[in-house]
Amino acid sequence: MSDLADEVDELPLSTRLSIADALTLGNAICGFMAVYFTTTGVLVPHLMGTSDSAMSKHSAGNAVTLMLMAAVFDLFDGLVARKLRSSAMGAELDNLSDLISFGLAPAYFVVVWGIVSDDAHGKVAAAAAVLVVLAVVLRLARFSCTTLREGVFQGMPSPFGAMTVVGLVLLELPFVPTVLAIVGVAWLMVSRVEYPKPRGRLALATFCWTLVSMGCIAAWTFDVPGGHSLLQAGCALQCVAAATIPCFATTRRVNTIRAARRSARAQVR
């Protein structure tokens, strides 16, 4: 045992996991399990002709809940890293975990939706899913190599984008508008629109909203009276927020630029 302890002590600091890193790994696990439930509970029964609507609904609910849990882990690993510490691997672990939970998992959810839905087109849904994955990859890569002013993200954060994509699918709108909206979300993730980072009250509001979303999904999964209406309302609010936040952010940025120009002109005069 002493030899093992000596070996652990000799490990370089860059390979030692912190509490924040453990939360980040929880994010990755949730993303993988979301793919698992989507496959075993929705896709495989459909392909084998043994699909049960209640079981498929339960599995889809589990998959979406796991993606929401991944968002909670992603929220808290950053908070913990700022309060305590993160290892040298922290940023890389975070990007890889986000790619699984907010890139692969929602894109795969879209692919399966395109296969199992009666009014959907599998190849078109797969193309939209590819755009979602590419958007998350590009967004995470850009985040790693650019420096922005404190307190903002450039482009829609990938957890918010993933939840919006899933919400669009669960709204059960016609196929074409749903696909176009998913493509729009992918574009917002790689856009230059600035989003505030969830800190302080905003972090608390984000956490509460996630818990409410989980409650709506649970009500829908277990056929609680009014559960479907709650789910539809929650998904609609998510989509409305995804559409309105960029408008407010863009308007604020334009007003800031105009004010700066007016100030510069005043100084020249």
TrEMBL record:
GO CC aspect terms: endomembrane system; membrane
GO biological process: one example: phospholipid biosynthetic process
Entry's localization field: Endomembrane system
GO MF annotations, alphabetized: CDP-diacylglycerol-serine O-phosphatidyltransferase activity
Membrane topology: Multi-pass membrane protein
Major subcellular location class: membrane
EC number: 2.7.8.8
The keyword Transport is assigned to this record: no
Transmembrane spans: 25-48, 60-79, 99-117, 124-141, 161-190, 202-222, 228-249
UniProt keyword annotations, A-Z: Lipid biosynthesis, Lipid metabolism, Membrane, Phospholipid biosynthesis, Phospholipid metabolism, Transferase, Transmembrane, Transmembrane helix
Keyword Protein biosynthesis: no
One Pfam entry name: CDP-OH_P_transf
Record InterPro entries: CDP-alcohol_PTase-I, CDP-diaglyc--ser_O-PTrfase, CDP-OH_P_trans, CDP-OH_PTrfase_TM_dom, CDP_ALCOHOL_P_TRANSF_CS
Lineage top rank: taxon: Bacteria
Catalytically driven reaction(s): a CDP-1,2-diacyl-sn-glycerol + L-serine = a 1,2-diacyl-sn-glycero-3-phospho-L-serine + CMP + H(+)
Family that this chain belongs to: Belongs to the CDP-alcohol phosphatidyltransferase class-I family.
Protein name: CDP-diacylglycerol--serine O-phosphatidyltransferase
Species this chain originates from: Actinacidiphila guanduensis
Taxonomic placement: Bacteria, Bacillati, Actinomycetota, Actinomycetes, Kitasatosporales
